[in-house]
Amino acid sequence: MNELDPLLHSQLRLAVMSILMSVEEADFVYLRQQTESTAGNLSVQLDKLSNAGYISVEKGFQGKKTRTVCRVTERGREAFRNYVETIRKYLNL
Amino acid sequence: MNELDPLLHSQLRLAVMSILMSVEEADFVYLRQQTESTAGNLSVQLDKLSNAGYISVEKGFQGKKTRTVCRVTERGREAFRNYVETIRKYLNL
DNA sequence: CTAATTTGGTTTATAATATAAACCGTTGTA
DNA sequence: TACAACGGTTTATATTATAAACCAAATTAG
């Protein structure tokens, strides 16, 4: 039995990756709404995904308001696919 | 997005449940071998699953040696199935 | 027989993780 | 000019996973 990538085996980070896998671009506010997480928690988990190179985080402006846009990187896609394959074995899927 | 049962969203506990779902009875030593976990870790996680009523743990003897046999309960089966359904949404499966 | 070693665990300490609370700068608004 | 709201970040806390230390019984070695 293989190890489950600890970076992905976390409820919130998995939810974020799940969204980004299907959407290709999502900002902080949207992720917060979809995941129903607190801003602090989301911020921390985005950092971790970013530091791992699984997502890119771009801070820009929407008019005068700041806007943080996230995208999954190719590395992130691969890690996600790999996680899916691994956990399928645990779930007997 | 639903919550992932924290009792099952743990590498080792999920591995144990996965095994028990397909085997219907497994002892401590077997689980230790299959999961490649330390005895301490396994002991703790079995306790948690047991306290949650997800598995039954029976301590008996095999000749003169002690033998701890585990089985998944109906409650455990249901929780596992539910976990699978929930995480499928995260994984887009 | 007695002393080590192994087996099958449990208990306890530690390290890592997730999460929320408190905070901060900017921007609209009363 | 305050003061609330938005978009976050940083820091503190509580939980969790994990390994290390330990224990009793059984086996093996001298």
**CATH topology name of chain A:** Arc Repressor Mutant, subunit A
Helix content percent band of chain A: 55-70%
CATH homologous superfamily of chain A, by name?
Answer: Winged helix-like DNA-binding domain superfamily/Winged helix DNA-binding domain
Oligomer: homodimer
Compute the CA-based radius of gyration of chain A: 14 Å
CATH architecture of chain A: Orthogonal Bundle
Query: What is the molecular shape of chain A?
Result: elongated
Spans of at least 5 consecutive residues with low confidence of chain A: none
What is the count of structural domains of chain A? 1
Let me know the number of strands of chain A.
Answer: 3
Mean pLDDT of chain A: 96
Gap between N and C termini of chain A: 14 Å
Broad CATH class of chain A: Mainly Alpha
What does this structure look like?
The structure is a homodimer of 93-residue chains. The first copy, chain A, is α+β, with helices and mostly antiparallel strands and 93 residues long. Chain A has one domain: Winged helix-like DNA-binding domain superfamily/Winged helix DNA-binding domain (Arc Repressor Mutant, subunit A), CATH 1.10.10. Chain A is 56% helix and 19% strand. The first copy, chain A, contains four helices and three strands; from the N terminus they run H-E-H-H-E-E-H. The first copy, chain A, has helices at 11-23, 28-35, 39-51, 74-91; strands at residues 26-27, 55-62, 65-72. In chain A, strands 1-3-2 form a three-stranded antiparallel β-sheet. In chain A, a hairpin with a 2-residue loop joins strand 2 (55-62) and strand 3. The first copy, chain A, is elongated, with a radius of gyration of 14 Å. Chain A binds chain B through residues 1, 3-4, 9, 11, 14-15, 18, 21-22, 34-36, 84, 87-93, and chain B through 1, 3-4, 9, 11, 14-15, 18, 21-22, 34-36, 84, 87-93. Chain A binds a DNA duplex (30 and 30 nucleotides) through residues 6, 10-12, 28-29, 32, 37-45, 47, 59, 64-68.
